[in-house]
Specification:
homotrimer; alpha/beta; Udp-n-acetylmuramoylalanyl-d-glutamate--2,6- Diaminopimelate Ligase, Chain: A, domain 1; UDP N-Acetylglucosamine Acyltransferase, domain 1; flat
Chain lengths: 344, 344, 344
């Protein structure tokens, strides 16, 4: 990270400096409530407006003029988008000291690691793997046989991509994630025990996908478990065999999706959601945190609760339950009156 | 995978060819709704009957005669069991290019790796480990001191089996799983902070067990955390210290079982179930997805909900809650009438 | 583990031998219900008193005199604390056969591994890492650039500590855990897809912290995701970016905490809890298993349910719902009576 002046940053953002010295030097990026002198921050969420008057930041990025204790105010169209650009500009250099292909990596002679690959220490690349140009594999990864990566994929340390996994370009996979583990498929035998169903398929991941840490994506029985382009998964997510997730979905941590479920495009999941097997969730649906989805979901609806219902209905039922103890009292009183009458 | 004719497959299944050319060659296995020309599939689930008339599959395996667009119809007793046999027959060859014991593996001289072991690159086997004949350890695994495996175990890449773990024969453990981490045991000290309770026990896994990816099985305080023969665990499951799971259980993803709980034989768990500590779940119980089990469970019952109740009761209460807003309206009307009367 | 006599153990505990031969030799430690001859156990929990009369243990540790089949009874102030000392005394020796810094570890020349480090086989330590004296890194770990550990940390096999992670002293991190993965931060672009927000911050872990297996702790956008001194995390826990957890907290397995949430000191979480983002949970709160926390939580309160409410209220509403089917019957009868009247 080099130092930049307020002028340089304002220009980079295509913004307008409303106040402050354009020659001041920015020393860091931070959140408005914890900024130190010299820091640049942004303010867009109403929850944080109260910090405007006390922040120690040198500069604040906003999308409308504000009163603030910060010396510099930079006006932009979209403050969060501008903040993203500042984060990119001031990203600390923490690149690995191990560059190129580390000699301790074990790469099968039949594997093609593309141009400009960076492969960390003690990473394994098995036979017939094909890496597009510019891929980075962190230390300690295992790529099983016939794994295919597109260009510019970034696979963080200790990721496991198992045999036959196919990944598009510009994909990021975080540490500890396992792609291509066997699906959970068994058939009872005559003794009541379970025989394993061979999982002959693979996992096919699109481009511009990001998968968080310690996720598990199971291979299909036949065909592919699919994750569409631009879909983003948080940490500790379970995707079972033959699940098909569309484009541009957004799935928060610890969600689990059971086998053969199909998810459309632009679907959003809160954390700890559970989705049953053989279900269809259509485009643009939103599933609130901790919901349990037990049947098909229409396009664009917002569900919550377990079993998941339209969110307004969940709220209505929740409000009704909250009133239930009083209602029960009232019913008892009414009943006492009635019993009084019938007791005549 | 070699090519097989319809006749060869029908014979292999002990089935009967109801229609189609026995000399047609099968090129792949797939699901009925996504089959390509040349594929073989099965149809047994009523949800998928509608695809029979349009499938592009060459052949469909069924347990009763059907009308279908597929050229060949193979009749068998159990269509899913037959499909399993076809999957085994046509399993693609994706074996590792690293055979035998890879020279990069670090094996302590005191370890006994048995006959015909296959040990992947960069796997560690610590002192006094004993492997039965025919074990496969994928790349990047760590076996701590005194880990014992029976015969023909298949340990996928990046698995961690910690000190003293004992595993039976024919066990499969998927990538990222940790067996033998310390149980979560602390005792408050005088300052209100927590002192660690040493976890002196181990984990003992039976035979024919399969454990999914990124699970965690904690070692016991004393004695063993136990997983019985033929039990199958899906991904991301937590088994706490001193849990004892019986034979032939079936546990879906993201379930968590708290310390010292005992689970009988043939118990089935849906996904994301939570079970409290020091609980007994008896043989054959079924716990629906997302349930929270807070007390002992009788043999053979089916529970759901949080707190978990007999499933029929959960359904009855759920239906009652769904009617609650209307009931509240009715009570208000009744009460208005009463008030009208008493206001006389 | 060496052998100790009852006298030696009683002295070590500062206890009093109420009965039995002080020269008897203890051969193992176990739970009262599964003890073998020669074992020592404790009994403090009322659930286990029934085993006192039948236990095969040689000795039982108690905090008040009891009748028991065990030959020796050792009286102490706090039986569980005493049992902890016995576990420490009789801990089996299962240390790794790989001592010092294993030659297969890949350590960047710029890294400082401190004095008396033990670094397992095939572990990677990247540039500018600094380890305090006496740290143990198990096999297969990856420490990214500029990771800092205090003294006497114990990092179990296959842990991933990513760039810039800072850890205090006397910290234990269990296998498979990932510290410093990117937070889940995106901003929609004009096409409705999501652009990644750079995650420039790090994770800062205090001293005397223990983190279970296969957890994920995300790095901050700016600043640090923080885990305070003496806090203990169980397995498979998700801590999102910019979460701040105080001192002495206690978090059970599979809990997830969303971004920018602040948790005070001495907060306790049951398993599978979900906490929303940008929430404040104050000191000493207790959150029951499977709760969903959706708003700020006052000091010292106990919450349960989803959405989480004060525990007594959750119980009251649960009891009311359990009575609902009967209440509905009653309302129907009342209404039938009313209709009868109005039908006159």
């Amino acid at each position: 990270m080099s130092d930049f002046t307020i002028r340089e940053i304002t220009d980079h953002l295509g913004g307008k400096l409303l106040s402050g010295n354009p020659d001041s030097v920015v020393s860091g990026v931070s959140a408005i409530q914890s900024a130190d002198a010299g820091d640049i921050c942004y303010c867009g969420n109403a929850k944080y407006f109260r910090y405007l008057s006390t922040t120690k930041a040198l500069a604040v990025i906003v999308s409308k003029p504000v009163e603030t204790s910060a010396e510099c105010v930079i006006l932009v169209d979209k403050e969060y988008d501008a903040f993203r650009k500042v984060l990119l500009l001031l990203k600390p250099d923490r690149s690995s000291g191990f560059t190129d292909i580390h000699p301790s990596a074990v790469i099968h002679p039949s594997a093609d690691t593309g141009s400009n690959a960076q492969i960390g220490p003690l990473t394994v690349v098995d036979r017939n793997c094909i890496l597009g140009d510019g891929c980075v594999l962190g230390a300690g990864c295992v790529l099983g046989p016939a794994v295919i990566l597109g260009e510019n994929c970034f696979i963080h340390p200790n990721v496991t991509l198992l045999e036959g996994t196919s990944v598009g370009s510009n994909v990021i996979i975080h540490s500890g994630t396992v792609v291509g583990s066997d699906g959970f498929g068994f058939v009872p035998d005559s003794s009541g025990m379970h025989k394993k169903i061979p999982q002959n398929g693979n996992v096919a991941i699109g481009s511009h996908v990001e998968i968080g840490a310690n996720c598990t994506i199971d291979r299909a029985v036949t065909g592919s478990t699919e994750i569409g382009d631009h879909t983003k998964l948080d940490n500790l997510i379970q995707v079972a065999h033959n699940v098909c997730i569309g484009r541009g979905c957004f799935i928060a941590a610890q969600t689990g999706i059971a086998g053969s479920t199909t998810i459309g495009n632009g679907v959003t999941f809160g954390g700890q959601v559970g989705v049953g097997g053989h279900i269809v969730i259509n485009d643009g649906a939103v599933i609130a945190a901790k919901s349990g989805v037990t049947k098909n979901v229409d396009s664009g609806v917002t569900l919550s609760g377990n079993p998941a219902r339209p969110h307004m209905e969940t709220l209505r039922l929740g409000a009704a339950v909250a009133r239930l103890p009083k209602i029960i009292e009232l019913v008892k009183e009414l009943n006492a009156g009635k019993i009084g009458e019938t007791g005549d």
